[in-house]
């Protein structure tokens, strides 16, 4: 959708008009110079420079508008026949909110799950402890090492253990079911993430168009790429190597370790 | 032993806290980035620091450097528990003086091993 609009606004070769103008001027300039009309020639040169500047300004203007549109057009409900909507209403802005929602949701789910585990684990360990005590008492009973008083105590203890087990397992079951239910966050966040991924793909596509467009400007106006740019780029690449970027999705990359074992190997190779 | 856990995600702090408790360390405190952690370290008598790398404000690697540069904290054992898994970063952390490096997601076993190793060496 967005790229169609850009196609009509930007992809028309703006250089063609400028080149035609340039050629025309050049022809006139040669004529004037041959006729020794230097003053008129000088005026022509000035006109050419102005035309070049104008061309650059216009193209940069188109680029800017194209970029603006590319961002704004991600707002699905926008009426494209009207003025472009404000950037604050765009889907890009919306995407940040959505990603914030993903963090919130995953955090809540993680916390709730841990709450459930915190609730469940003492129940499980209490039942386990009681069971092992009863088991050793039961072994004594089987070996007839138990007194009548102890038997009476065991009798009641077994009874209450059954009750504890019944209540406990019910609670454990509930906790487990709650944990399963809580996994619903995967669906919800997955949907949001898919939407954002789609959006990023579209932005990328449009940005590539814009870069193409910009390279045409560089070409026709002879705007040389400053050397500093490349230097800065190298610095940026070097900086990226050390920049924190969160979990590595693609562990097959050369500069990335695939797990704790490789971390340990690397560190021990450094004398750790 | 007094331990400071630094991570911007409260869930991760809680996971590490739980694991440490299972290992018998219950005196744990929390901070959500280097900026809040550093004053806590300077004023409290912490004996061990567990920190994430990627945090807003002040990152874990900067916190590590600040700790090593501080006269009083210079010898504090530091374990980095992070999702950062680039070789250059691990080397950087080693050069900055980290005592252990655990990549997320990690197992309880891995965390336990690294912590024990650090204490064995530090004594």
Produce the secondary structure layout:
The complex is a heterodimer of chains A (272) and B (123).
Chain A: H1 2-9, H2 14-34, H3 38-72, H4 91-142, H5 148-182, H6 185-221, H7 227-242, H8 260-269
Helix pairs in contact in A: 1-3, 2-3, 3-6, 4-5, 4-6
Chain B: E1 3-6, H1 10-22, E2 28-31, H2 34-43, E3 48-51, H3 60-69, E4 78-82, H4 87-96, E5 100-103, H5 108-122
Parallel strand pairs in B: 1-2, 1-3, 3-4, 4-5
Q: Could you describe the 3D structure shown?
A:
The complex is a heterodimer of chains A (272) and B (123). Chain A is mostly helical and 272 residues long. In chain A, 79% of the residues lie in helices and 0% in strands. Chain A has helices at residues 2-9, 14-34, 38-72, 91-142, 148-182, 185-221, 227-242, 260-269. In chain A, helix 4 (91-142) packs antiparallel against helix 5. By secondary structure, chain B is of the alpha/beta class. Helix content of chain B is 47%, strand content 17%. Chain B has a five-stranded parallel sheet with strand order 2-1-3-4-5, with helices on both faces. In chain B, helix 1 links the parallel strand 1 (3-6) and strand 2 (28-31). In chain B, helix 2 runs parallel beside helix 3 (60-69). The model of chain B has no long low-confidence stretch (mean pLDDT 92). The interface between A and B is medium-sized, with 23 and 28 residues.
């Amino acid at each position: 959708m967005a790229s169609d609009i850009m196609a009509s606004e930007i992809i028309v070769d703006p250089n063609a008009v400028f080149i035609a103008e340039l050629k025309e001027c050049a022809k006139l300039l040669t004529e004037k110079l041959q006729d020794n009309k230097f003053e008129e020639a000088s005026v022509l040169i000035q006109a050419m420079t102005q035309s070049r500047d104008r061309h650059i300004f216009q193209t940069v203007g188109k680029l800017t508008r194209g970029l603006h549109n590319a961002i704004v057009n991600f707002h699905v409900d926008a009426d494209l026949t009207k003025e472009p909507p404000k950037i604050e209403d765009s889907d890009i802005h919306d995407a940040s909110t959505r990603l914030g929602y993903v963090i919130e949701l995953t955090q809540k789910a993680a916390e709730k799950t841990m709450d459930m585990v915190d609730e469940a684990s003492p129940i499980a360990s209490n039942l386990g402890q009681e069971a092992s005590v009863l088991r050793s008492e039961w072994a004594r009973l089987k070996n007839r090492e138990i007194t009548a008083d102890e038997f009476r105590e065991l009798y009641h203890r077994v009874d209450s253990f059954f009750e504890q087990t019944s209540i406990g397992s019910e609670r454990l079951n509930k906790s487990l079911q709650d944990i399963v239910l809580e996994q619903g966050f995967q669906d919800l966040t997955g949907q949001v993430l898919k939407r954002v991924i789609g959006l990023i793909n579209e932005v990328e596509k449009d940005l590539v168009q814009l870069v193409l467009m910009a390279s045409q400007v560089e070409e026709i106006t002879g705007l040389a790429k400053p050397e500093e740019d490349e230097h800065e780029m190298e610095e940026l690449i070097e900086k990226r190597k050390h920049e924190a970027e969160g979990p590595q999705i693609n562990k097959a990359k050369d500069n990335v370790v695939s797990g704790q074992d490789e971390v340990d190997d690397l560190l021990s190779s450094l004398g750790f | 032993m007094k331990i400071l856990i630094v991570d911007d995600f409260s869930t991760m702090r809680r996971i590490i806290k739980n694991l440490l408790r299972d290992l018998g360390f219950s005196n744990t405190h929390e901070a959500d980035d280097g900026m809040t952690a550093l004053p806590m370290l300077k004023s409290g008598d912490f004996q061990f620091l567990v920190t994430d790398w990627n945090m807003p404000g002040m990152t874990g690697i900067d916190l590590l450097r600040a700790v090593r540069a501080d006269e009083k904290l210079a010898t504090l054992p530091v374990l980095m528990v992070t999702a950062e898994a680039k070789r250059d970063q691990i080397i950087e952390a080693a050069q900055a003086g980290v005592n252990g490096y655990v990549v997320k997601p990690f197992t309880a076993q891995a965390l336990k091993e690294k912590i024990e190793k650090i204490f064995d060496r530090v004594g």
